[in-house]
Design goal:
The protein is an alpha/beta fold. The protein has twelve helices and 19 strands. An eight-stranded parallel β-sheet has the order 8-9-10-11-12-13-14-15. Helix 2 links the parallel strand 9 and strand 10. Helix 1 crosses helix 2, helix 7 packs parallel to helix 8 and helix 8 runs parallel beside helix 10. Bound molecules: zinc ion (ZN). Zinc ion binds next to loops. The site of zinc ion (ZN) has 4 residues, from loops.
């Protein structure tokens, strides 16, 4: 008898954003062909008895093979980053084609695409970082690139070398509106951060732990408010990256309550770390330095609540790998102040196990017994919907067979040595988690199984994306922008 399918994963529990059920999963030509009990034969069969069969993770915020504004190359290549991501249960990531001041965006994206094509072994897309919003970028390159399938733009409201002020921010929001792209924002008040950093260093408070203080918590809520006000003026949907404070989550809740299209993410570092993690001898605390910094226990609680309520829709890693040596964190030498130390943590490989442990194994109370659904939704289904990745983020007939098979009972202690990225450390070392992704397939092909890598660099595919539903304006204009109420001024065309 000839096999009906290329692959059948038999006997597992299939997870989705809206419930889990016992089913076999059949794969043909790289796609999910059928779900059900007692499906016909596959050329290959995988026994998933006692396992969870879940959509592969989609990490929508990862800095890979990217040069920082300060000129530091991050530690990972596409090959190492996507290897690490795959070992952590991911099948898709979105990284950043980063324009710096003076650079041509078209050339930045073309050059970056070469690196990704060569190295990636899971599927990928890019956000376009715009730091040079000049006429060519705004009028020519962005419309063309969005049209080609790069339907999200990232803007920084802080960092000296890449920040975009209020007026060019409005230009970018309008461009995104006209060509239907999502605007993703690193939103913190630049003046407050730079003033605090200067004051702390002047007074001799230079250890890594002072980094946490140097981004005062109000700098987040202030920037969120300013950003949301600008987005409301143009009726342009936004995604607020890496929410870290309870007040920030509250600002987002209020905006969504007013019907604005404000999406947001948080990251494991804000759910599992606090500022006390930076309080280590010497420069050791640099390993826990990221921006915004980890906050307090009360913020963790507020962020879990915001995830459960849907105010925050995704959890990404914000993987930003700098080694703990002179090529990375310590490039300013052994006497660096916190202002001279690169901000960023690795996290591609630990994001899903940490969340699985908290949501599924420990059963965070905010999710009232629906932890597995929440896990799938926050890490795969919602990211695919918001960033418009058709055929990704769920195991449904016709969808890509991007699958992570989890052993929910496997206990693992996270260590630096077990990680597959090139950072050399993980801020989560020493933590024990229950549940681990043991077998990861992209479009039906093994990427990780039996603790080994099976995919070749370059096997990952670029995913062209249009703006989709999330990036579509609401159609409700504030009075200043509405020609029926502003003396006929048509400003949005
Ligand atoms: Zn980032």
């Amino acid at each position: 008898m000839t096999a009906n399918y290329d692959l059948v994963i038999r006997g597992g529990t299939v997870g989705s954003a809206t419930g889990s059920f016992r089913a076999d999963v059949a794969v043909k030509d790289g796609k999910v062909a059928a779900l059900g009990i007692g499906l016909g034969e596959g050329t290959r069969e995988i026994d998933a008895t006692g396992k969870f069969v879940l959509p592969g993770g989609i990490d929508t915020h990862a800095h890979v093979e990217q040069v920082s504004a300060g000129g530091l190359l991050n530690a990972d290549t596409f090959e190492s980053a996507t290897t690490s991501a795959a070992f952590g249960g991911n099948t898709t990531l979105i990284s950043f084609a980063a324009q710096h001041r003076g650079l041509d965006l078209r050339k930045v994206v073309d050059d970056y695409a070469v690196l990704a094509r060569r190295g990636a072994l899971i599927d990928y897309a890019f956000h376009l970082i715009v730091a040079n919003p000049d006429a060519k970028t705004i009028r020519q390159d962005l419309p063309a690139l969005i049209g080609e399938g790069h339907a999200s733009i990232k803007v920084f409201m802080t960092y000296d070398l890449i920040k975009v002020d209020d007026e060019p921010l409005l230009d970018l929001l309008l461009t995104a509106r006209q060509h239907r792209a999502l605007i993703c924002v690193h939103a913190e008040n630049h003046g407050m951060i730079s003033w605090m950093g200067r004051k702390l260093v002047e007074k001799g408070y230079v250890a890594p732990k002072y980094h946490a203080i140097s981004h005062p918590r109000g700098s987040e809520a202030e920037a969120f408010n300013r950003l949301i006000t600008a987005a409301e003026l143009l009726d342009q949907p936004i995604m607020i990256f890496h929410v870290s404070t309870a007040e920030g989550a509250q600002v987002i809740r209020d905006a969504r309550g007013r019907g604005l299209k404000v999406f947001s993410e948080t990251c494991p570092q804000y759910l599992f770390l606090t500022r006390h993690d930076l309080d280590k001898p010497g420069l050791e605390g640099a390993k826990w330095m990221c921006s915004p910094p980890p906050r307090e226990q009360v913020d963790q609680d507020a962020l879990w609540q915001a995830l459960a309520l849907g105010d925050i829709q995704t959890v990404s890693s914000d993987h930003a790998p700098y080694r703990f040596d002179e090529t990375g964190k310590l490039s300013g030498g052994p006497n660096s102040t916190f202002k001279q130390i690169a901000n960023g943590l690795p996290g591609l490989e630990t994001r899903l196990p940490l969340l699985f442990d908290a949501l599924v194994s420990q059963g965070r109370p905010e999710f009232a017994g629906r932890g597995l659904d929440a896990f799938v939704n926050l890490t795969a289904t919602a990211p695919a919907e918001i960033y418009n990745l058709p055929g990704k983020g769920a195991l449904l007939p016709g969808y890509d067979a991007d699958i992570a098979i989890w052993d929910p009972a496997k206990q693992v202690t996270i260590t630096d040595a077990a990680m597959h990225d090139l950072t050399g450390f993980t801020p989560f070392a020493g933590r024990s988690v229950t549940g681990w992704p043991e077998h990861v397939l992209v479009r039906g092909e093994d990427v990780v199984s039996g603790g080994a890598l099976h995919a070749a660099p370059g096997s990952g595919r670029w995913l062209a994306r249009t703006g989709g539903h999330a990036a579509t304006p609401t159609g409700r204009l504030v009075a200043d922008m509405d020609p029926q109420r502003n003396f006929g001024a048509a400003l949005l065309d």
